[in-house]
Amino acid sequence: MQTTHPPGLWRVVGGTEVRGADGTIICNTADYRVPKPDMVAFAQPDAALIAAAPELLAALQAIVAEAGPRMGLDTAPGTINTISRLARAAIARATGT
Q1: Which residue from 43, 54, 77, 84 has the least number of CB within 10 angstroms?
Q2: Exposed, middle or buried: residue 10 (CB in 10 Å: 0-12, 13-18, 19+)?
Q3: CA-CA distance, 74 to 97, in Å (whole number)?
Q4: Are 4 and 97 in contact (CB under 8 A)?
Q5: Considering the domain boundaries, does residue 66 fall inside one?
Q6: 5 falls within a domain
Q7: Residue 46: in which H helix or E strand, if any?
Q8: Cα(19)–Cα(2) distance, rounded to whole angstroms?
Q9: Please, what sign has the CA dihedral across residues 75, 62, 22, 49?
Q10: CA 22 – CA 6 distance, rounded (Å)
């Protein structure tokens, strides 16, 4: 699994194509669905989410870094431990680590 991604902010072009800051095509969400009349209803939101992925990953990494010193034994839902555990799992999935 690739553990790095094209740097910079990603953007949506044409509603369904996601491009890196240097213009590299990351993906086109219209390409992976069987064409049908409501395809745009799914492809455009998917493209927006994919384009936000690098920023979402950075936000999760910042949350984990901030939560680290305050982690205790409390595992109740909504506590910093639970939130940090969920964030770490998402980071691991995104980075392949």
Answers
A1: 77
A2: buried
A3: 25
A4: no
A5: yes
A6: no
A7: helix 39-67
A8: 17
A9: positive
A10: 8
Structure tokens at 86: 């969920």
What is the pTM for the complete model shown? 0.69
Burial class (CB in 10 A: 0-12, 13-18, 19+), 43: buried
Say how many domains are in the chain: 1
2 in a structural domain: no
DSSP 30: T
In this structure, which amino acid lies at residue 54?
P
Per-residue pLDDT, 40:
66
Tens digit of pLDDT for each residue in 71-89? Answer: 655 566 667 777 778 888 8
Residue 60, domain extent: 11-95
> What is the enclosing helix (H) or strand (E) of 26?
strand 25-28
